[in-house]
Each structure stands twice: as C-alpha cells, then as structure tokens.
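Schema walkthrough. Field components (list of strings):
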Amino acid sequence: MSGAATGGFDLLTQLPVLQVAVPLVAAPLCSLLKGRNLAWALATAVSAATFVIALLLLQMVRADGPISYALGGWAPPVGIEYRVDTINAFVLLIVSAISLIALSYARVSVAREVPPSRHHLFYTAWILCLTGLLGIAITGDAFNVFVFLEISSLSSYVLIASGRDPRALTASFQYLVLGTIGATFYLIGVGLLYILTGTLNLADLAIRLAPLADNPTVLAAAAFITIGIALKFALFPAHFWLPNGYAFSPSAVAVFLSATATKVSIYVLLRFEFTVFGAVPAFADLHFASLLLPFAVLAFIVGSVSAIFQDDVRKILAYSSVAQIGYMVLGIGLLNVDGLTGGIVHLFNHALTKAALFMAVGALVMRAGSGRIEALAGMGRRMPLTMFAFVLAGLSLIGVPTTVGFVSKWYLILGALQTGPAGYAIAGLVLFSSLLAVIYVWRVVEVAYFRDPHPDTPRVEAPMEMLVPMWILTAACFWFGLDTDHSAGIAREAAMELLGVMR
Amino acid sequence: MTPELQLQLAVLLPLAGMIGIALAGRSPNLRETVTFIIAIANAVNVWTLVPKVVAGARPEVVLFTIMPGLDLKFALEPLGMMFAAVAATLWIVNSIYSVGYMRGNKEVRQTRFYACFALSIAAALGIAFAGNLLTLFIFYEILTLSTYPLVVHKETDEARRGGRTYLGILIATSIGLQLPAIIWTWNLTGTLDFAPGGTLAGKVQGISAGVLLALYMYGIGKAALMPIHKWLPAAMVAPTPVSALLHAVAVVKAGVFTVIKVIVYVFGLDLISSEPSTNWLVYAACITLTLASLIAMRQDNLKRRLAYSTVSQLSYVILGAALGTAMGVVGAGLHIVMHAAGKITLFFCAGAIYVALHKTEISDMKGIGRIMPVTMACFAIGALSVIGLPPLGGSWSKMLLMVGAADAGFQIVIGVLILSSLLNVAYLLPIPLHGFLYRPAGAPEGPVAIKEAPLPCLIAIVITASLCVVLFFTAGQIVEFLQPIATPVAPAG
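Field assembly_structure (string):
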C-alpha cells in the first residue's frame, strides 16, 4: 500500500464506530437548530453519511469476512466490541437507507403534521432513533444492545406522539408500557447470563455457555430474552401496540418505523438464537427458535384476517405488518438455509414494500383528510400517480411474481417444504395468507378506482418531494424482485454464516 | 428482425399502444386510430413469425434471471404461435366491432376500455410466448387484473358484484392451487421450463400425479372446469366486446392454452396416457361439457346461454389434452381456433342485437331475423360452426377429438361428444330459426323494416362469420402446423 492510502485506511478501520458516533453527535446539535429546514437538512445529511458507511461496511465484510472493532481500544471481551458480519451489515444498510429515503419524503408531510415549534425536536428524536437502531445492529455486546434498544424505543415513543392526532398519545403510551416490559425481560435474561458466565460479549457468551448446556438457568435466560424481544417486534399475541402506533403517528414516522424498528429487533432474535444459544449443543437439539413457529403462523394468519376487517387504510397496513413479521419469524424458525434466507431477505423486501405503501397512504391521507377507506373513493382519478404506486407496492405485499414479495415467499415455501408434512401445511398457509392479502389490498383498490370521487376532494397530485421517494421504493420493489443477487444473495450468505455457527 | 426481438415486440407493442391510447384519450378518433395502427402492426409482427416456426425455428429469449435456474423468458413453439396468431388477429376485428358498439351504445370511460383492452392483449401474447411456468403465471395474473376494469366497466352494483366473483375465483384458484402446483413441480424437477416430452416423466407417479394434475387443472380457473366456472357467467355483466374478448380472444383461450401447455410440456403425453391416476380428467371434462350444455339450454338470457356454451366448449379442449394421444392434443389445439371464430361471431351478434334493439332475452327475439337479417344469418353460421357441421371450421376439431378418443380407448367419450353436439343443436339453433320463421311481435302487416347494428359492428360480424367458413378449408394446414407438439423431434436449426 502506498503512503497516500494510509490515511484512507485509517478512516476505514474506524467505520464501525463512526456508524453510531456520527448520528449520536449530530442529535444534540440538531436540537439547537432553530430553522425547521436546517434541522431536516442535518438529519438527512446524517442519514446519508450512515448510509455510505453501511455500504462500505457491507462491501468490506463481503470481501474480507467479519470485522471486529474494540471500542476505546479495550480488547474484547472486557471492552465493548463492535462486530460486523454479513447479517448485521445487511441490517445496517436497510436501516440507514430507509432513514435516508423516508427523510427525503418527510419534509413536506412533517411540515403539515407536526407543530412547527417542535420541528427541530422531531428531527432530533429521529436522529436519536436512528442512532439506537444502528447501535443495536452493530454492537457485539449484550448490555450495549439494551442501551441502544432504550435509546431507539424512547425516541420512537416521542416520534409516534409528535403528530396532531390525539389518539397518537394513547398509542404511544401503550407502546411505552409494552416496550418497557419487553426491555425489562431482555435485561433480566442478560443479567442471568452475566451471573452464569461473567461476560456480556456475545461471541464470548457463546463460548462460555457451551459447557453449561444442562443448566436450567440458561434456559430461563433464553426464554426471558426471546419473549422480551418478541414483545419488541410485535410477534402475535404481543402485537396489539403496533397497529395504533403506526396508524396514528405522522406518516413519515410510520414509513420509518414500520420499515426499520421491528426489523432490528428481529435481528437481535437472530443473533441470540443462532450466534449465542445456537452454539449450546442442548439448544441446537431443542431447536429453540422453532418453538416460535406456531406463533409465526398465527401471526401471519391472524394479522392478515384482522387487516381485512379494518376500515382505516393505515390500520390495514399496520395489521399487515403484524402478518409480515410472522413471515420473518417463520423463516427463522424453519432452521434451514432456504427458510432463513427467506426470513432475512424479507427484512429487506418488506422494508421496501411497506415503506412505499405508507408513503403512498401518507400522501392520500394528506389530500383526502382521512385514512378511512370510504374517504379514498375515486382517488385513482384524483391522484393517479400516488394510487398507482399503492397498487404496485400492494402487488408486492401480496407476493406476485416479479416483485420482492414473491422472492421472500418463494424461499420461505421452499424452506417449509424441506421440513416434512408439517412444512407442507405451513407452505399452504403461507399461500392462503397471500390470498387474504389480495382481499385487503383489493378492498382499497376497488374503492379508489371503481367508485366516483367525493366532489369536494381536490384533484391535486402529491408534491414531487413525496412522489419521487415513493416511486423509487416502488421501482425497487420490482427491481429487487427481478435481480435478486444483491438481496437474496446476501441474505443467503448471512443465513449460511448463522447456520454454520449452529453446526 | 430476429425472431427473439419479435417475441419481445409482440408484448411491447400492445403496451405501447396502451400508453398511446391513454395519451390520446381526449380525441376519440385519434385514440381509435392508435388502436388500429398498433393492432395491425402487432398482427403483422406476430404473423411474420409463423413461417419461421414452420421452418423449425424455436427462438428463446431470457429477460431476467430471478434466481439461479429461475428465469423470466419467452420461447416460441407451434401451440403458442397459434394462440398468439388468434389473439393478434381477433384484436383487429374486435376493435372494429368495439368502435361500433361503444359509440352506438354511448358508453362512458371508453379510454379506459381501449387501454385495458390493449393491456389484455399484451398479457395474452405474454402467455402465448411464455418460456416457462413462472413467466406464464405472471402474464396469467396480469391478464386477470387487466380484464377486471373491463368486466366492471359499467360500475353499477351488479357489475361490481360480478367483478368481485370474477376476480375472486380467478385469483383464488391461481394463487391457492396453481402456484402450489408450480412450486411442487419445481421441488420435483428443479426446473419450470416447458420441454418437449414433459419434465415430470419419471419424477412423479401414482396418486401424486393425479393430485398434481388436479392442482393444475382447477388452478387454471380460466379453463372453467366445473365447479370453477362460475366466474364466466358472472362476467357477463361486461359490455359485449369484452365478453367477446373474454370468450374468444384472450381469457378462456389463455386458460385452455395453459392446460394444453401443462399437459404437453410439463407432464408429457406419455405420462398422461400411461398413468391411470390422471384419467379422472377425461371424466371431469366429459361431465363439465355435458352439464354445461344442459344448463345452457335453460338460460333465457342470450349472453348467459353463450357463457355456458363456452364452459362446455372449453372442456372439449381439456378433454382433447386429457386423452394423452397425439390426435387428441392436435384436436384440442385446433378447437381453440375454431371455437374462437365461432364464439366471437355469436357474441358479436348478441351485442349487435343489444345495440340495435336493446334486447337481451332469447324469448324476446322471435322474428328478429327479419329485422336484422345479416346479423342473424351470421349467427346461424357461427352456431353451426360451434355445433360442428361442415362446411364450417368446428367440424374438424370435433372429428379429431373423436379420433383421439378412439385412439386412447375411451369409447364412451365418443358417445358423450355426439350427445353434446345434439345438445348444442338444441340450445343454439332455435335462436336463428325462431328469428327467421316468426314475425316480430307487434309488427304491423307487410314487410318488416330492417334495423341493423352500426356498420362497424356489421363488418366485424361478417368477417368472423366468413372466418368460420375459411377455417374449414385451412384446417389441414393448422393441423400440420400443430403436429410437432404431439411428436417431439429435435428442432432443426
């Protein structure tokens, strides 16, 4: 290497810490900014920076294998380790990319939905939330996960409640109560593990837990952690905080959180089930993650059925999220490469799909003044571009071939078919749930295209600032549905890494 | 131009047409000009492929590779070529008719109508040229979605109800049954390609083969095998040109085309004829074609009667494929063409009667032949072709089907076919007979004033009726053209 490259090389080695440090430092700065556009610009710039860093990290991991970064120079397991391998590089990329694109959409909608005096605080909370989510994904330390979990959760309570809709306050409070219970459960589990092993480093935990296979405390710890995290990602039957939270928050928040918050929690589940407990022989035999299977199946059936009976489009989408979380957990529970690939790639695919849908719905609600299905009558003629984006992203939600939704379901079904007769039933249920998705998406389409519009709804398309990100995501739903090298390809590498640990 | 490029063009041209139609929406004359230019260009493009297929060319083009081994691709073979030629040709005729019907009836939302029509044609050609099951499935779904706005065109509550049945049944069967069948096939063979001789041979046997076949046959809801036929009568709320599109040009033809494709290129004729567990399909088709004829006899609404007639005729095609003999499959393919020409004529006539006289019930149509002589004469020709009497096209395909049944050793099928032809006579012929023999109700003495449908409608009707006659004399060429699908040989060049 030449001398000129050394400076660049140094910066590259610091990337893991910069991933979190950049937004963490930017957050207090943002709270000092008075102009609303200034705060928005800073948040966008920060997101762009984290996106570039995540992209570089992913490239480095794919080229040279996992990266370990000792925070403050304290070598792990004593110090806090930031550890990046394929799966969390992938999650980092999803979170930062969605934050960036959601912010480019947010300026117009936030200007309408959040009181102007609080704009700088809103964007501060956004950056903090981003910090927390990225931190959870990058850290290799169990307690550090808890810290970032709290940072992201507290700031997302603020984000949800920041709109003008009073129902958002109760929704946020519900989320706060359940989120806190979840975090506490997680902390109890981590505490038990610490008592047993004296370490908090995830990789070190895996090594030290291996000889303790028969210890019932390990089982208790695993149960606490799993249930705590499951509350965080709203696995059925702990899902009821989610629909209100997404439905009544400002639309940009719904876009951001629906595409990232639950995904990161699912990543934590993956990390514990495979990296930490997967190394314990007794757990590998027990197939701990597969205990979640029944809940996963119930989640996507109950979620889809509930979505059918909602009258508010935002709630339809939110209940659909409950169902999609079921798919992801299903992929984890199947414990084979195809299934896990499907689960992991669905983190990405669903982020694209649901973000596009919430963007379209945000624009529709802005014009129609309400999210009720009835209010959307004739919107296909009033806002043709927005409504068509909704239809296309809706096809992805259903899982029509050529969309990303199909890629996820294809892998999930192939994974399910490998597990014998029960798997056949699960595969059938996945398809059945797709049919339910047809119904809830079509209810909206039928009203929007085949009813006459209300005479008093304006014939105004959404502003460019909302249309462009919406259509970028919609196009991405199809792009990554046709070219799966960079989504399913990476997911497959990650799945093999994770399952490799178990063998 | 390379045939590979032409395949893509065949789907892209109607899509471009759709955009052009939408942009020209403000000027009806310009809009219809776009439709005709594109439809004619498209037909030229499709027809110039025919000699290349005859010469043995089997072009393939991969559009995307979604996953290793799983492509979106087009591939040309005689059956698809034939379906594409039918759809591309009838699009022109149907457009002529639509101009007369839609304007004569002063229908609203005509731009959406023509745009969705073009999209449906694109989807039908995509189905015709699909190189594997996945590609076919995608275009199959696009066809369902793009015809939905046509079915609910009137946007009344009745139309919306019909549309919901239409969409519900077609989507539910395709995702609930056809897609699992495709995934199962992938699991068994590791490929979704259409291959001469089939890909499933040796990979599935016994009861599984029968179950897989059932998933496909009931999953292809567009083929309307009973009890998955309810969507067809429900879709009768659509304007008549749409019914013609559904019944003759695109939708049901896409269904039975898919059936033949699956049986010939996925199962393979050898597997179908040697595996007893797949025989049920022969009987299911026989039951459908008889029952549907019986139900058709009891319908007084002309379009509903024709709808049940279609259900019955589709099962002829399914039957031909299910026999698993070379003659049966060729007969099935031929019947797609013959029924298309015959049934489109009948629907055009039904629409013409509605435009001119606003009559929909058969009991009101006595003496109508004296008011609309050209229309009723053409109706008679179409009816005779559907029944299968020479010198009309329909006679050849029914004959081939009987020969195929004899080859396969299903003597009972021959009886069923003869019975069904009699039933066809019973429910189709009374309409023109009563039309010509009676005097119109309430008409004054003396010669009856002639009142035909608008000229474009009449032109279209005459074209399709003549087509029924022409096809009688060209059937030999079509059979020769289709022969390679039943006797797989290595493509030459």
